[in-house]
Amino acid sequence: MGRVVMYASVSVDGFIADEHDQPGPLFDWLTSGDVPLDESGVLKVSRASHDYIRSYWQQIGVTICGRRVFDLTDGWDGMPPSGIDHVVVVTHRPAPERWDPAAPFHFVDGVEAAMATAQELAGDRIVEVAAGDVGGQALAAGLVDDVRMDVAPVVFGSGKRYFGSVDAQHLLEDPDVVIQGDRVLHLRYGVRR
C-alpha cells in the first residue's frame, strides 16, 4: 500500500483559500519561473520546484477531495488533474446529472470509505488527500502519513484552513524536505504516530 499524503498550497498563516474560495496569490509560484511544469506551457516554475513537484506527481495514483473542490473545478471536465489516474470525491450526494460514468471519478460517502477505495485503486502508489476539511478529517482519523505544503509568501488573515476544522493537537516530525523555489517554500513532514 502506498503512502497517504495531505497536500495543498498554503498561506504563511495556514489558509488554502480566502473566504470566497479564491486562492489569490497562493498559486503565483506556478507561473513565476521559467521551467515548464506540464505540457500546457502555462505553468512555469523554478528548476527546484519543477524537480520536486514532477517527481511527486509521478508517484500519485489517486487524489481524494471533497465535493466542494469537485464543484469549484467543475470536476476538471472529467479528466483528473496532473495526470492522476483516479479521483475519489467525498460526498453525501450522487454524481452530477449527465456525469460520464466512464470518467475515473468515484463518489463515496465518508473519509474512511474514500480512503479504502483510493488505496485499492492506487495500489503501491501515493494516495493524495486535498488539504481542507477532508484532509483534516483524514488526519484526525489517523489516515495520513505525510503532510506536504507549498507555502506561499502571503498572509490571508482568514479563509479556508489548511487543516480544516481539526480541533485537536497532532504532532508532526521535523521536516524531511525543505526546498526553496521562486515565491514558494516546499515542505514535507511525516505524521508522528
Could you list some keywords that capture this structure?
193 residues, eight-stranded mixed sheet, 4 helices, globular
What does this structure look like?
By secondary structure, this protein is α/β, with parallel strands linked by helices. The protein has a single domain, classed as Dihydrofolate Reductase, subunit A, CATH 3.40.430.10. 20% of the residues lie in helices and 33% in strands. The protein is built from four helices and twelve strands, in the order ββββαβαββαβαββββ. The protein has helices spanning 47-59, 67-72, 111-122, 133-140, and strands spanning 4-11, 15-17, 35-36, 44-45, 60-66, 86-90, 105-108, 126-130, 146-152, 160-161, 172-181, 184-191. The strands form three sheets. An eight-stranded mixed β-sheet has the order 7-6-5-8-1-9-12-11, sandwiched between helices. It has a two-stranded antiparallel ribbon with strand order 2-10. A two-stranded antiparallel sheet has the order 3-4. 37% of the residues are buried. The mean pLDDT is 95.
Topology:
Blueprint: E1 4-11, E2 15-17, E3 35-36, E4 44-45, H1 47-59, E5 60-66, H2 67-72, E6 86-90, E7 105-108, H3 111-122, E8 126-130, H4 133-140, E9 146-152, E10 160-161, E11 172-181, E12 184-191
Parallel strand pairs: 1-8, 1-9, 5-6, 5-8, 6-7
Antiparallel strand pairs: 2-10, 3-4, 9-12, 11-12
Beta-strand residue percentage: 25-35%
Q: What is the radius of gyration?
A: 16 Å
| Widest sheet: strand ordering | 7-6-5-8-1-9-12-11
The residue-averaged pLDDT reads 95
Number of helices: 4
Q: Unreliable runs, pLDDT <50, ≥5 residues?
A: none
- CATH architectural designation: 3-Layer(aba) Sandwich
The portion of residues assigned to helices is: 10-25%
InterPro entries: DHFR-like_dom_sf, RibDG_C
GO molecular function: 5-amino-6-(5-phosphoribosylamino)uracil reductase activity
Protein name: Dihydrofolate reductase
Organism: Agromyces kandeliae
